[in-house]
Design a protein that fits this description.
CATH class: Alpha Beta
Number of strands: 10
Strand order of the largest sheet: 2-1-10-5-6
Number of domains: 1
CATH topology: Sulfite Oxidase, Chain A, domain 2
Bound molecules: ligand MTE, molybdenum atom
Structural class: alpha+beta
CATH superfamily: Oxidoreductase, molybdopterin-binding domain
Order of helices and strands: EEHEEHEEHEEEEH
Number of helices: 4
Largest sheet: 5 strands, mixed
Helix content: 10-25%
Length: about 160
């Protein structure tokens, strides 16, 4: 017998939760730094062509060329040297979010995008938006309106205490 997995029913939210594109980068010890789009622009920029937003039930859009900062470059710039991390959780202000393993982040150009097709993303389009180019599972990792990037280590739970 094959398990029935219902199709994706998430209606994508078209409305930004706020006008504020700043977000926090939160380390496993709880320390946080607030980052602006200008901070992202100060880091090495990459562009990733042929990205699609693949959403079952409400169509595929693209191809887009997204531009921004690789998540691995962001972490390299802001985490203490040699700090191990095993995953990142990316949350938006409207409650949507995803978790990416370190392996996923290293394997492909996962980025925090602030441009699309050479122009700035509008806030309505997500500014700042997580782009996971290889993700075709109903756009569930293409997180608009990034508000928190949480760095996870395998030991964070022990350190955080009860
Ligand atoms: N913050 C946030 N990001 C989100 C969503 C959402 O509801 N909130 N919906 C997701 C889903 S289900 C889809 S299909 C795409 C839609 O992206 P688009 O608005 O660029 O077409 O955004 C994804 N990212
Ligand atoms: Mo979707």
């Amino acid at each position: 017998m094959t398990a029935f997995v219902p199709p994706h029913r998430h209606d994508p939210n078209p409305f930004p939760p706020s006008d504020d594109p700043t977000f926090t980068l939160e380390q496993p010890d709880g320390s946080a730094v607030r980052l602006t789009v200008a901070d992202l622009r100060a880091l090495p920029a990459v562009t990733v062509p042929n990205c699609y937003i693949v959403s079952t039930g409400h169509g595929t859009s693209g191809p887009f060329t997204f531009g921004g900062v690789l998540v691995r470059d962001l972490l390299a710039a802001y985490l203490p040297a040699e700090m191990p991390w095993s995953a990142v959780v990316v949350l938006s202000g409207d409650g949507f979010g995803t978790r990416l393993s370190a392996a996923e982040v290293q394997a492909e150009p996962v980025l925090l995008a602030y441009t699309v097709d050479g122009r700035p993303l509008t806030r309505r389009e997500g500014l700042v938006r997580l782009i996971v180019p290889g993700e075709t599972d109903d756009a569930l990792k293409q997180v608009k309106w990034v508000e928190r990037v949480m760095v996870i280590t395998e030991f964070a739970r022990d350190r955080a205490g009860p």
